[in-house]
Design goal:
The protein has five helices and no strands. With about 140 residues, the chain is mainly alpha-helical. It has one domain: Four Helix Bundle (Hemerythrin (Met), subunit A).
Length: about 140
């Protein structure tokens, strides 16, 4: 059994779990912000949806790393299977925690933007900083392959 194939699959799986958790956290806040708008007879800003969906990108990063880079590497060098498995687990966890942090930041941003109608770009900058962790994990893992 080539452990590299398991690493290729596991990186996406772990990243997707983090995305799901992050989306759940941010999504609850987006729905709550919309509810406050409806109660106050204000229009519900659809821009808040960006906060809820932002953690989804970590799933794409897991896919890119796992199947576009690790799987071919595992085919080319099956003896490095344990290395690829380790990279998959470590990178997947980094991406998952990035998505969870992004969900928390997005939740705060959605709440603040929904209540005040101001600061969207500022809040998105913090969401973007959380995203950067996942990008670094993906790119540095690609380099190590």
């Amino acid at each position: 059994m080539n452990l590299g194939f398991i690493g290729a699959g596991i990186v996406m799986g772990i990243a997707a779990i983090g995305s799901a958790i992050g989306i759940g956290i941010a999504g609850q806040a987006v729905i709550g912000a919309w509810k406050k708008c409806y109660i106050g007879n204000k229009p519900a800003p659809m821009t808040l949806l960006v906060f809820g969906g932002a953690p989804l990108t970590q799933t794409f990063y897991g896919y890119i790393l796992g199947f576009l880079f690790m799987k071919p590497a595992a085919v080319a060098s099956p003896d490095n299977g344990l290395l690829y498995l380790g990279i998959g687990i470590a990178s997947g966890l980094a991406m998952a925690f990035s998505a969870i942090a992004q969900g928390k930041a997005g939740a705060a941003g959605a709440d603040a933007a929904g209540e005040t109608g101001k600061g969207f770009a500022n809040y998105m900058m913090i969401v973007g900083v959380c995203e950067t962790v996942a990008i670094f994990a993906m790119v540095l893992s690609m380099i190590s392959l």
